[in-house]
């Protein structure tokens, strides 16, 4: 693993708080994921690829914006790996690389309606601004 | 003043390589009480032991110090040597200059310095040692087996075969355990009942074995060789001695809708029931929660139809008190609850079942008479999905699953899949697996047969979601090898549920002062070398109560536990450990601190008369230690606020003398 990849890996682990080594490769996260068909890389692959330091492909995949942040994978993972948090961390790094061009806080209120879940608001900041 | 001999061992070069043994024996020569000091290549050899014996006689030694390996290795050896030369074995002290000196230090000066210090400490202790004599206790030549599954059955048969009486206590109305509920058994596919029921009959017919069915252990007192046990025989409202097991009552009882636990609630039984045709003992039991007569005095049908006159609505729980020399725990396991696994829709659909339920569905004596029909509409399933590792290997949530591998599910799932394909070739069978674990004789071959000969589809991945939709169960899973999400419309989903110890195991362990791991499996005295003994003397382990096990492993462990019990019961007397707690009655104020900390219940109190300095007498409450129960753990000596409690052979004064010698 190159030094650069290693630094990136450490950064993702730090941001997400996820320990990819806990993964036992059962695939239950990908079995549960409702966005599976739309994703090039699936939740278990995020975990394995981060562990292997194979991160560039993840930073450049559309999958980052297909994940619904529904947390089904987090809920179901038998080892408590929390793959969605890793997806989120990769998304964050990708956004930062693009000069943090995300939606401004000021733009959000206009888009809110009463039924919007809190979680969706938070994800909105990071996802739909590409 | 003692006359002490010091013997420094080289252990070949093990000690002598890093410790200057000559310097050690020279230095210790000048310690108080030492009259003789030497060193030798192998102290434990015949020649070394003779050297010790000769010195004891020649120098009229009253105590010896052997500077050698760990006391765990050779303390017993040197005690025997001393005894052979007429010295009390408890006048021997070992200074461990191998594990604690030569093996952990690299240079000779440090190793030597520490060896001298440890030798001085041992000499200081021997100066305060007193001869000790172990007590003896008799052995009750009868064994108790708790749990009547295949483990308990095999253990009881083997003990009885050696000529000792055995009692089996079983909570259910019949012995047999989980094996009685199974259909066929891997890896040979023989029918479970065909190999189990002859053993159950052997138990019933063996005049050395008594079965207390529908009974529980209520209290255990005493110690190895001498346990006093109270057994509660629950009222079954049927006189066991008279009931012929004809079953007339179970056909006439009007209470028809009681969930049948033997078939895991998949059909009903009556309020009066015999769990299954080959039950042992084959007698009826009335379920007091369902019987009209017992609930509101209206009915009495069974008493009328019983030709033997065995029904007794007034029967009471009975307490049986018995003495045992050894106790074997064989309380087995149960599948965990599937309630918390919403993703598999277990609680929503009758057609999502556990593997144990599947066993009943394929069993000729089961709710469908052995025809594989799905529970919801009794239709023949054409697509079945098996899910392995449900709740096993789960580290995410202790409420939901277990961190360990349940060990038996890969094999029984292969068995189920194979049997389905064998009987119903028109049924497609899918197995989702994380790993297929088959470490056993003929196990991997068995699994490969399921795939290669029977065409079972094994999918490397997990099921994430099961959704009931119309008559189908929509199964969504992952196929990690194809990197696909797969969707299967199934008719039946079978969950290989994790297994856990019986819920009654924990309170039982407390009663027995036997230890358990965090998962409530009983722990063995040594994971490799003493796998069937619990750390509590006289308590042995058999079967799945110690860890997940299949039948071959259970039966081997059951036999091993039996042979340990036989070894114990064959003795007429047990020699105790003399290094036990003893109170100084003059200092004890009867505060009960020691009783509260003693993990073995060895301490009681008596009122005793004491002569006071002014020649009057006073009655005081003082502690007493039962020498047969005390294990010499020393907890009480620390708890005692008055310093009245001491361990023989490890008295506070002796320990302090050692510390002083080290710190000098
Ligand atoms: C679905 C399934 C399929 C299986 N298939 C196979 C197979 O094909 N081949 C194979 O080798 N193994 C198989 N097994 C494993 C097999 O069932 C076990 O190895 C075996 O039953 C263990 O026996 P045991 O006596 O230790 O425990 P159990 O069978 O659980 O027996 C324990 C007994 O103790 C009683 N008990 C519990 N607590 C108390 C108490 N406090 N006081 C008194 N009595 C108590 C219980 O009522 C029970 O009768 C299968 C298991 C399952 C779940
Ligand atoms: S959080 Fe994202 S990756 Fe996880 S299951 Fe939901 S959509 Fe899939
Ligand atoms: S569910 Fe958890 S353990 Fe299983 S593959 Fe996904 S991240 Fe790994
Ligand atoms: S008395 Fe109770 S057990 Fe007997 S037949 Fe009536 S309901 Fe059934
Ligand atoms: S703790 Fe000490 S003083 Fe108290 S009862 Fe026990 S021996 Fe006596």
Structural topology:
The complex is a heterodimer of chains A (130) and B (664).
Chain A: H1 3-16, H2 28-32, H3 43-52, H4 56-59, H5 63-66, H6 72-76, H7 83-97, H8 108-111, H9 118-127
Chain B: E1 4-9, H1 13-16, H2 21-29, E2 34-40, H3 46-58, E3 63-68, H4 71-84, E4 92-96, H5 98-102, H6 108-128, E5 136-138, E6 143-146, H7 150-161, E7 166-169, E8 184-185, E9 190-191, H8 192-205, E10 209-212, E11 215-223, E12 226-233, H9 248-252, E13 258-259, E14 268-269, E15 272-273, E16 285-286, H10 292-296, H11 301-305, E17 318-324, E18 326-329, E19 333-335, E20 352-354, H12 355-362, E21 383-390, H13 409-423, E22 428-433, H14 443-452, E23 457-460, E24 463-469, E25 472-479, E26 484-490, E27 492-497, E28 499-501, H15 505-512, E29 539-541, H16 551-569, E30 573-575, E31 581-583, H17 593-597, E32 603-611, E33 617-625, H18 635-639, E34 645-647, H19 652-663
Parallel strand pairs in B: 1-2, 1-3, 3-4, 6-7, 6-18, 7-10, 18-29, 20-27, 21-22, 21-27, 22-23
Antiparallel strand pairs in B: 5-30, 8-9, 11-12, 12-17, 13-14, 15-16, 19-28, 24-25, 25-26, 31-34, 32-33
Bound molecules: flavin-adenine dinucleotide and iron/sulfur cluster (SF4) (4 copies).
Residues 32-35, 43, 67-73, 83-84, 87 of chain A line the site of one iron/sulfur cluster.
Characterization of the model:
The complex is a heterodimer of chains A (130) and B (664). Chain A has 130 residues and is mainly α. Chain A folds into 2 domains: 6-97, Fumarate Reductase Iron-sulfur Protein, Chain B, domain 2; 102-130, no CATH class. Chain A is built from 9 helices and no strands. By secondary structure, chain B is α/β, with parallel strands linked by helices. Chain B folds into 4 domains: 4-127, 3-Layer(aba) Sandwich (Rossmann fold); 143-332 and 505-569, FAD/NAD(P)-binding domain; 333-500, 3-Layer(bba) Sandwich (FAD/NAD(P)-binding domain), CATH 3.50.50.60; 581-648, Alpha-Beta Plaits. Chain B has 19 helices and 34 strands. In chain B, helix 7 (150-161) crosses helix 8 (192-205), helix 7 (150-161) runs parallel beside helix 16 and helix 13 (409-423) packs parallel to helix 14. Chain B starts with a strand and ends with a helix. The model of chain B has no long low-confidence stretch (mean pLDDT 96). The A-B interface holds A 22, 24-33, 36-37, 42, 44-45, 72, 76-80 and B 343, 389, 393-397, 401, 434, 460-465, 476-480, 483, 485. One iron/sulfur cluster binds at residues 32-35, 43, 67-73, 83-84, 87 of chain A.
């Amino acid at each position: 693993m190159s030094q650069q990849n290693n630094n990136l890996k450490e950064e993702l682990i730090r941001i997400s708080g996820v320990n990819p080594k806990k993964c036992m490769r059962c695939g239950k996260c990908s079995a549960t994921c409702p966005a599976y068909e739309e994703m090039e890389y699936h939740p278990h692959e995020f975990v394995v690829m981060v562990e292997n330091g194979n991160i560039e492909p993840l930073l450049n995949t559309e999958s980052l914006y297909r994940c619904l942040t529904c947390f089904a994978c987090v809920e179901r993972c038998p080892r408590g790996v929390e793959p969605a948090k890793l997806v989120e961390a990769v998304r964050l790094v990708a956004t930062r690389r693009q000069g943090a061009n995300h939606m401004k806080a000021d733009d959000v209120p206009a888009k809110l309606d009463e039924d919007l879940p809190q979680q969706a608001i938070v994800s909105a900041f990071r996802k739909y601004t590409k | 003043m003692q006359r002490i001999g010091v013997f420094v061992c080289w252990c070949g070069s093990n000690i002598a390589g890093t410790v200057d043994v000559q310097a050690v024996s020279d230095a210790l020569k000048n310690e108080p009480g030492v009259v003789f000091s030497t060193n030798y290549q192998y102290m434990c050899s015949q020649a070394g032991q003779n050297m010790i014996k000769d010195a004891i006689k020649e120098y009229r030694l009253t105590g010896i110090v052997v500077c050698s390996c760990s006391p765990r290795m050779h303390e017993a050896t040197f005690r025997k040597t001393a005894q052979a030369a007429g010295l009390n074995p408890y006048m021997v002290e070992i200074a461990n200059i191998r594990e604690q000196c030569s093996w952990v230090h690299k240079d000779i000066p440090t190793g030597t310095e520490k060896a001298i210090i440890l030798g001085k400490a041992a000499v200081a202790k021997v100066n305060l040692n007193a001869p000790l004599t172990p007590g003896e206790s008799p052995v009750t030549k009868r064994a108790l087996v708790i749990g009547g599954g295949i483990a308990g059955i095999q253990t009881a048969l083997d003990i009885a075969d050696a000529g000792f009486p055995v009692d089996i206590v079983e909570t259910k109305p019949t012995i047999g355990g989980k094996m009685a509920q199974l259909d066929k058994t891997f890896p040979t596919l023989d029918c479970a009942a065909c190999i189990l029921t002859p053993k159950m009959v052997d138990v019933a017919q063996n005049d050395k074995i008594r079965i207390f069915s529908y009974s529980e252990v209520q209290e255990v007192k005493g110690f190895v060789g001498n346990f006093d046990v109270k057994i509660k025989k629950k009222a079954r409202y049927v006189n066991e001695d008279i009931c012929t097991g004809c079953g007339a009552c179970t056909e006439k009882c009007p209470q028809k809708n009681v969930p049948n636990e033997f078939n895991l609630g998949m059909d009903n039984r009556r309020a009066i029931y015999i769990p299954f045709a080959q039950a042992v003992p084959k007698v009826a039991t009335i379920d007091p929660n369902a019987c009209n007569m017992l609930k509101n005095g209206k009915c009495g049908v069974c008493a009328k139809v019983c030709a033997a006159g065995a029904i007794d609505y007034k029967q009471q729980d009975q307490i049986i008190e018995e003495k045992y020399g050894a106790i074997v725990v064989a309380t087995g396991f149960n599948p965990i609850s599937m309630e918390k696994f919403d993703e598999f829709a277990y609680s929503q659909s009758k057609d999502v079942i556990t593997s144990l339920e599947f066993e009943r569905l394929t069993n000729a004596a089961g709710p469908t008479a052995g025809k594989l029909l799905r529970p919801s509409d009794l239709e023949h399933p054409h697509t079945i999905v098996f899910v392995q590792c449900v709740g096993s290997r789960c580290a995410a949530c202790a409420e939901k699953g277990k961190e360990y591998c349940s060990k038996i599910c890969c094999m029984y799932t292969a068995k189920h899949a194979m049997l389905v394909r064998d009987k119903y070739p028109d049924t497609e069978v899918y197995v989702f697996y994380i790993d297929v674990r088959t470490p056993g004789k003929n196990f991997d071959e068995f699994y490969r047969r399921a795939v290669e000969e029977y065409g079972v589809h094994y999918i490397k991945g997990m099921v994430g979601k099961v959704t009931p939709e119309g008559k189908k169960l929509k199964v969504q899973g992952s196929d990690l090898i194809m990197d696909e999400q797969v969707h299967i419309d199934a008719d039946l989903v079978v969950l290989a549920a994790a297994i856990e110890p019986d819920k009654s195991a924990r309170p039982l362990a407390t009663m027995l002062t036997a230890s358990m791991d965090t998962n409530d499996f009983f722990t063995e005295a040594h994971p490799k070398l003493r796998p069937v003994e619990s750390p509590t003397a006289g308590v042995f382990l058999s079967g799945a109560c110690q860890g997940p096990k299949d039948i071959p492993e259970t039966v081997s462990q059951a036999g091993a536990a039996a042979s340990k019990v036989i070894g114990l019961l064959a003795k007429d007397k047990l020699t105790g450990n003399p290094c036990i707690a003893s109170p100084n009655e003059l200092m004890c104020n009867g505060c009960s601190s020691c009783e509260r900390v003693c993990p073995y219940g060895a301490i009681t109190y008596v009122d005793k008369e004491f002569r006071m300095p002014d020649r009057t007498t006073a009655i005081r409450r003082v502690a007493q230690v039962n020498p047969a129960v005390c294990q010499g753990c020393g907890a009480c000596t620390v708890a005692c606020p008055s310093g009245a409690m001491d361990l023989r052979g490890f008295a506070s004064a002796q320990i302090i003398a050692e510390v002083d010698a080290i710190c000098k």
